[in-house]
Amino acid sequence: MKPGDLILIRGTDLLALEIMKATGGRFSHVAIVVCDMAPADPNDGIVIEAVMPRVVTRPFHLSILDTSYWEIWSNKTLAGYQRWGIVAAACLYSAADYGYGRIGEHGLDSVFQTDWFAEHLPQIGGHPICSALGCLAYNEIGLKLGAGARTITPSDNRGTGIAEFVAGNADYERVAFGGGQG
What we know:
With 182 residues, the chain is of the alpha+beta class. It is 33% helix and 26% strand. It has one domain: Alpha-Beta Complex (endopeptidase fold (from Nostoc punctiforme)), CATH 3.90.1720.
């Protein structure tokens, strides 16, 4: 677990299940590793993620609580300063309100099988959802995670989600995975 690594999560709550149903994807959530907790606990770390009601920083084990599966993906080409650049960019959103309106836009897009709503409706206050937080943080150092921050999802059946992007990109490797702890 290194700073800037991506965590893909398959949640079990109603919103997570609806996100996966709407997108046809395998994952419902994305988090970013801030740092590990070694030597105290080398299997745990601190993550930043957009969860209701705001962007939070918390231990990894709490992030995967009540999930059914998770994966950690690392970009093998990143230098240390780039990893910290991703973390710094994500931390700019720390404590920002969750992007409830963006979930609505994605919901409309799933009903009408388009990206029009996410691409064209005004973005209220720049409040991120989980996948946008990851995308914006990576964009800050000049990297893309597939689709743009307005339309990105954790995973989707069109092949444009973060999960599909990292799995299909030779620069990324899955470094850990497991079941939830709840």
